[in-house]
Design goal:
By secondary structure, this protein is mainly alpha-helical. It is built from 13 helices and five strands.
Length: 239
């Protein structure tokens, strides 16, 4: 950007305005059509978002999440019969539009797709929306790894369970999270634990830099919904 243009762009919005040019009209129309298909009020809200030029960056993110959600939605049984509650769709579009990271967008897409049911009144994903809205990019990467790597089984009562500790060395944790600041990692593990996504004793061990990453049942539930799977975690993990 030239010095003249930079001096006129005091709010730093020019790169954001330029980025919306990468969103094609077909992509926007497709996202709007999909939202109209599953929830008309959400499509109307999406239209308002498009008219706000200041929200160009958010529009691009919302379109991306919606496209990902549609791909997952089409894989569900009898998608032509499925609809989502406006409260759910509105919350997902609002929150996900602030995220440009692919890992987080994919989780939002999974929540949107799994909110679509035959009667369109299910609101169970509200449990996960507030939690996901609080997660950083590195936290989502840590949670995804923990849920995939932990050894899982079915408890005597029939519940999903992580049967043993998942301990990860610091070097591996940095690789997983793309985060090199060890103190920030310590903070984020504490945050994941406080949100109930990891075991109550998860985090760095006091006598080493190894970290306990065992996911909780709630963490596993969020992960599974974020993958666009509508069944139980037991079914998802083949247990």
């Amino acid at each position: 950007m030239s010095e003249q243009n930079r001096s006129l762009d005091v709010l730093g919005i020019k790169p954001i305005a330029e980025s919306v040019n990468t969103v094609t009209k077909a992509a926007v129309d497709g996202a709007g059509a999909f939202l109209g298909r599953i929830c008309l009020p959400a499509a109307e809200e999406f239209g308002l978002l498009l008219r706000d030029k200041v929200s160009a960056w958010r529009t691009k993110n919302a379109v991306s999440v919606t496209q990902k959600a549609q791909a997952l939605f089409e894989k569900l049984p009898h998608p032509e019969k499925r609809h989502a509650h406006p409260r759910i769709v509105g919350a997902v579009v609002e929150n996900s539009s602030w995220c440009d990271d692919d890992a987080i967008q994919s989780m939002w897409a999974g929540l949107l797709a799994t909110s679509c049911t035959d009667d369109g009144v299910d609101q169970s994903n509200l449990v996960f929306i507030n939690t996901l809205s609080q997660l950083t990019t590195s936290e989502v990467k840590i949670l995804n790894y923990a849920c995939e790597a932990a050894k899982k089984d079915k408890s005597a009562g029939g519940w999903i369970n992580v049967e043993e500790e998942l301990v990860v060395p610091l070097a591996k944790l940095m690789e997983i999270s793309d985060q090199l600041d060890v103190h920030r990692l310590d903070l984020e593990l504490d945050h994941l634990r406080e949100l109930g996504l990891l075991w109550p004793i998860a985090g760095f061990r006091m006598d080493s830099t190894d970290a306990l990453l065992s996911p909780s049942a709630f963490g596993l539930q969020l992960y599974v919904r974020g993958q666009g799977f509508i069944g139980s975690p037991l079914e998802y993990f083949g247990l």
